[in-house]
Amino acid sequence: MNTYKLHRYLGYLLILPVTLWAFTGAFFLIKPGYKNAYEQLHITSYPRHATLPLLPEPEWQAIAINRSINLPRRDRRYRYQDKTHV
């Protein structure tokens, strides 16, 4: 194989990653199907004067009451209280 053909094949090999990088850049610029990922999230807020529908568990150290979520404190960290586990 002469130097000219070797140089040509190495050029093709080296241009391949740049070409793929350009295609992925164009793909993420267009972002097909990403519309749902950027929709506004719905936050359920609760009035502060309402009675909380949860009973304290013995391992809870404290409860942070916000308008949107209830956070019991376990092991020195606040954790989200899922309503399905209440």
Automatic annotation (TrEMBL):
Top-level taxon of the source organism: Bacteria
Bilayer-spanning residue ranges: 12-30
Organismal lineage: Bacteria, Pseudomonadati, Pseudomonadota, Gammaproteobacteria, Alteromonadales
Keywords, sorted A to Z: Membrane, Transmembrane, Transmembrane helix
Name of the molecule in the record: PepSY domain-containing protein
Species assigned in the record: Moritella yayanosii
